[in-house]
Amino acid sequence: MAAFLPKELLEGPKATGLQEVAVEDLLPRSQPRRRFEEASLRDLAESVKAHGVLEPLLVRPLEDGKYEILAGERRYRAAQMAGLAEVPVVVLEVDDKEARAIALVENLQREDLNPYEETVGILDLLALELGKEREEVVGLLHRMANEVKGKVTHSAMGNPEAQAVEALFKKLGRMTWQSFVQNRLPLLTLPEDVREALEEGSIPYVSALELKKVKDDVARKALLEEVKAGLSSRELKRRVRELTKKPEPQRAWHREVATRLAKLDLEALPPERRARVEEKLRELLEVLEEGA
Questions:
Q1: Are 88 and 18 contacting, i.e. CB atoms less than 8 angstroms apart?
Q2: How many domains does the chain have?
Q3: With contact defined as beta carbons under 8 Å apart, do 209 and 231 qualify?
Q4: Spatial CB neighbours of 87, under 8 Å, sequence gap ≥ 6
Q5: What is the pTM of this model?
Q6: Is 73 a catalytic residue?
Q7: Active-site residue (options: 73, 129, 161, 199)
Q8: pLDDT tens digits, residue range 226-256?
Q9: Range of the domain at 144
Q10: What Gene Ontology terms for biological process does this UniProt record contain (predicted)?
């Protein structure tokens, strides 16, 4: 996919070269990125004010003379904060699918990308490549994983979609698709409070996966606050084990009596105690014979 080759995009026939465009003529598109750290953005704005925008934005032309930002919205926002009138851009002649791919790849290249955003971004990139919905891609990945484990026999691994999945993960170079299924897909079903904490960067993703195991909302929220306050991963795992430990089923009392009687040595009992036990055993025998 062209979006994995930024130099080719910048230098190929779809690009019109580097130029300056008025900030007011730039329009952000609906971006995969949802959060912009205010402090980090202010720092960038100070740098932009001092040195200008060093890396050009990628844009595509719109019919009204405006330009849609494909990559570089953070630089655009910083330029606005710094009061710049113009910024450097590279204008690309791309269709909607290519524009979406560029935006997704640019989002995945962010330094402050958290694991949840990365997971969703990779799924959306796969969905775009395969022409599927995100949920369908998740299903395909699970089928591929089940086939590798021998749980299913249909040949998901041999079809073009599976080959496209493998090719994309190789291009990304971050992890294998198997590791993605095992370690990242579980993030999609995180409780909302845990997901928000992960997106904010206030907890690591390994802690998020541990907290997911706690089904009791009150207990989980209390643990979440402790993790935010610095609870260690080791201590968190210990606490989660305690909270999720299943109680051992109680043995039926009559089975316990039968087990103890089987081990009983009447001859070793003191005379008075032996007499009482024998009396109870005779009564029990009579009751059992009544129903025989």
A1: yes
A2: 3
A3: no
A4: 20, 21, 23, 26, 53, 56, 57, 75, 76, 79
A5: 0.69
A6: yes
A7: 73
A8: 999 999 999 999 999 999 888 777 777 888 8
A9: 115-186
A10: chromosome segregation
